Amino acid sequence: SAPPDAQDTLIQAAAVERALRALGHTTATYSLDGDLTHLRTRLESERPALVFNLVESLAGSDAAAVAAAALLDGLGLAYTGSSAAAIALSNDKCAAKALLVRLGLPTPEWVVPGRPPVGFRPGRYIVKSRFEHASVGLEEDAIGRYEDVADLIEAVALASRRYGRPCFGERFIEGREFNLSVLAGNRGPRVLPPAEIDFSAFPPTKAHLVGYRAKWDESSFEYHNTPRRFSFPANDDALLKQLTNLALASFDALQLAGYARVDFRVDRDGPWILEINTNPCISPDAGFAAALGQAGIAYDDAIDCLVRAALEDN
Question: Which residues contact 308 (CB under 8 A, 6 or more apart)?
């Protein structure tokens, strides 16, 4: 059977279809695999008024997910969410980070084989996939201390060979973790209430990390001890405003549309942008839906926002 992160797409599709039908739309589900020929033939024949794009991976690779949006562009069909160009940029975490740096937005230093290191300084680094999301291959053993950049480059190359996917090393930010969801609206993108991951149940020696087990393994300690929280003391107000502004700046920098989620870590030097996800999970039990609830936005109304935004942009 498919891994839980892949099965989650099917859960999202069912939830979105229920919402679209409740909103009065006629729906049909399109599936795809590594060969887009059948999908192209069906789309050319049926010419749907709008495609709700939930493609997060193609042929086992998140990097290939952009092919679905590119196909829709080629066919001249409207679709929800960001453009193929924006998806391609955000899915390449190193390219996205390079753009953030050029725009003066904070993101941790990183190292990728074959390129000059960006601001390397000795310390703890996390080795993670350059293109894959859903924390694939990401657990506590991905974090290590590196005094020499050559050792980090070797560790990145080793991880790339092990997983069969390009990896990079990023300075590990010791601190709090937040994620902020962004939803399109008729007055522009709106940042939903910030969520913080609560690591208070972790033992003192355990790294604060939302890895694959925390997201998908229901039998794991991490899954049951990384809850999100939306309530904050008054002395966090300035930080939350800064995170909100950075989430909007990230959304604008990558020219995103529809919706997104921006992940942050915060240490004594302030917030750091980790990743920007153009196609975040919108299943009813996921973080995006939880943020909608905190904002007082019904799930079906959010789906309607995404539909309207996509039709207005095309």
Answer: 186
Binning pLDDT at 50, 70 and 90, where does residue 188 land? confident
Other C-beta atoms closer than 10 Å to the C-beta of 121 total 11
Q: Six-digit token pair at 125?
A: 């680094």
Arithmetic mean of pLDDT, 245-250: 98
End-to-end Cα separation, the chain, in angstroms: 37
Mean pLDDT, rounded, of the chain? 92
- Give the pair of three-digit tokens for residue 154: 């070797």
Contacts of 102 (CB under 8 A, 6+ apart): none
pLDDT, average across residues 181-206: 93
pTM for the whole thing? Answer: 0.93
Task: Report the 10 Å Cβ neighbour count for 200.
Answer: 8
Contacts of 100 (CB under 8 A, 6+ apart): 106, 107, 250, 253, 273
Question: The dihedral of CA 148, 124, 141, 285: what is its sign?
Answer: negative
Cα(47)–Cα(83) distance, rounded to whole angstroms?
A: 19
Q: How far is CA 200 from CA 192, 203, 211, 225, in A?
A: 24, 8, 16, 8
Q: How many CB atoms lie within 10 A of CB 185?
A: 13
pLDDT in tens, 41-57: 999 999 999 999 999 88
